[in-house]
Amino acid sequence: MSKNFYQQINNCLNELKINNLLKKESIIITPQNVNIEIVGGYRVINFCSNNYLGLANDQNLILEVKKGIDDYGFGIASVRFICGTQKIHKILEKKIANFLCMEDAILYSSCFDANCGLFEPLFGLEDSIISDSLNHASIIDGIRLCKAKVYIFNSNSMDDLKKRLNEAKISGSRNIIIAVDGVTSMDGIIAKLHDICELANEYQALVIVDDSHGVGILGENGKGSHEYCNVIGKIDIITGTFGKALGGVSGGYIAAKKNVIELLRQKSRPYLFSNSLAPCNVVAFIKAVDMMVDCNHLREKLWNNVKLFREKMVSIGFKISNSNHAIIPIMLNDVKISQKFTYELFKKGIYVMSFFYPVVPKNKPRIRVQISASHSENDILYAVESFASIGKKLNIIK
Ligand SMILES: Cc1ncc(COP(=O)(O)O)c(C=O)c1O
Predict the structure, then answer these.
(1) Domain with CATH 3.40.640.10 in the chain
(2) Does residue 1 have a pLDDT over 80?
(3) Which of 89, 95, 136, 244 is catalytic?
(4) 245 C-alpha vs ligand 1 centroid, how far in Å?
(5) pLDDT tier, 217 (very low <50, low <70, confident <90, very high otherwise)
(6) If DSSP states are collapsed to H, E and C, what string results for the chain?
(7) What is the pLDDT of residue 191?
(8) Tens digits of residue pLDDT in 270-320
């Protein structure tokens, strides 16, 4: 027992508390949905889930999970290469690869794991990775696990990317890799993949896209940011999650050329040393990917909701990111104000989260709103009305 260690932990917690940086978890007692209930009897409209298409509580997917348990059992009790590969895991890999127009795919327990298992087996000391400054924590951690030289470019700035590409080229790298989020998770900015691919072509660089917030919703067929930006076939590696538009359940994947996937199966540590995806979820994911082909109506509803919310919020004077995505940050400049704002919204039955350092840069606290196809027009208008009245009360808008 080291007293010092436990004292050090308490000091860290106190510091977070003093600086208003402690994150609290609300306990939800209903399934994930637009209307949820939180312990204490609070019924709220949920504006902070990644449930973009409203499939987290979809009855067809729930039926598939039940069927999956009947047909394939509950636990798999193994990693993939020992005795954890059922035919459904192979079917899902083929399906997600086909859906994304990639050669092959490999499953992980989450996209966090996928990103952490991606870089180390493929890249080393001789390589240079150029990473967008707003990349998700899992890309950052994945890159940290490999020994490649790292360059950071200002988010979505092609001028800055070009500078970093030049630096990497001069350093004589074996491979130059550009790693971006298809959509930045805190700002909802869609990567300029068309321009990125042109630069990649010029510099003979590889392009890696984490499309966790793009898959299922962006592009005419919901394939994601590469479809939206018209660069299908030009991205080398795509990672993504089943935990957002595709049903909201833990699970992730990497899609790439066959030989890349084969090497990852041999060497990627979160794949080799962690349990296989739960069979019932795999069965439901197969259905979810199938459903993507027929859910244009849900995507249309989502984008109508997004447009309505964005237009109304701008018209009443809020500062939001200039994008078309369902992630909509309301910039507030002050941590305390953003927390107060969130609390006032909660009292009105609107459930959103405020985000502050270290999740977002110190000077950019915000409330992040996320829109779903399941929101009704009334839900959106009520949220806008609530933002307006609290915004006036707190002197944020006139
Ligand atoms: C861009 C991005 N990548 C990866 C992840 C992690 O996904 P998962 O929940 O499947 O681990 C997230 C989730 O927050 C994300 O926003």
Answers:
(1) 59-293
(2) no
(3) 244
(4) 12
(5) very high
(6) CCHHHHHHHHHHHHHHHHCCCCCCCCCECCCCCCEEEECCCEEEEECCCCCCCCHHHCHHHHHHHHHHHHHHCCCCCCEHHHHCCCHHHHHHHHHHHHHHCCCEEEEECCHHHHHHHHHHHHCCCCCEEEEECCCCHHHHHHHHCCCCEEEEECCCCHHHHHHHHHHHHHCCCCCEEEEEECECCCCCCECCHHHHHHHHHHHCCEEEEECCCCCCCCCCCCCCHHHHCCCCCCCCEEEEECCCCCCCCCCEEEEECHHHHHHHHHHCHHHHCCECCCHHHHHHHHHHHHHHHCCHHHHHHHHHHHHHHHHHHHHCCCCECCCCCCEEEEECCCHHHHHHHHHHHHHCCEECEEECCCCCCCCCCEEEEECCCCCCHHHHHHHHHHHHHHHHHCCCCC
(7) 98
(8) 999 999 999 999 999 999 999 999 999 999 999 999 999 999 999 999 989
Which CATH number describes the domain made up of 59-293? 3.40.640.10
Whether residue 19 is predicted with pLDDT greater than 90 in this model: the reply is: no
What tokens appear for 184 in the block? 């930045």
pLDDT for the residue 328? 97
Catalytic residue among 185, 212, 268, 276: 185
Residues within a 6 A CB radius of ligand 1: 110-112, 136, 138, 181, 185, 210, 212-213, 241, 243, 252
> At the fourth CATH level, which superfamily is domain 3-53+295-393?
Aspartate Aminotransferase, domain 1 (3.90.1150.10)
Q: How far is the CA of 116 from the centre of ligand 1 (A)?
A: 11
How many angstroms separate the alpha carbon of residue 244 from the centre of ligand 1? 8
Numbered ranges of CATH 3.90.1150.10 in the chain: 3-53+295-393
Provide the pLDDT for residue 364.
87
Q: Which pLDDT score, from 0 to 100, does residue 363 have? A: 85
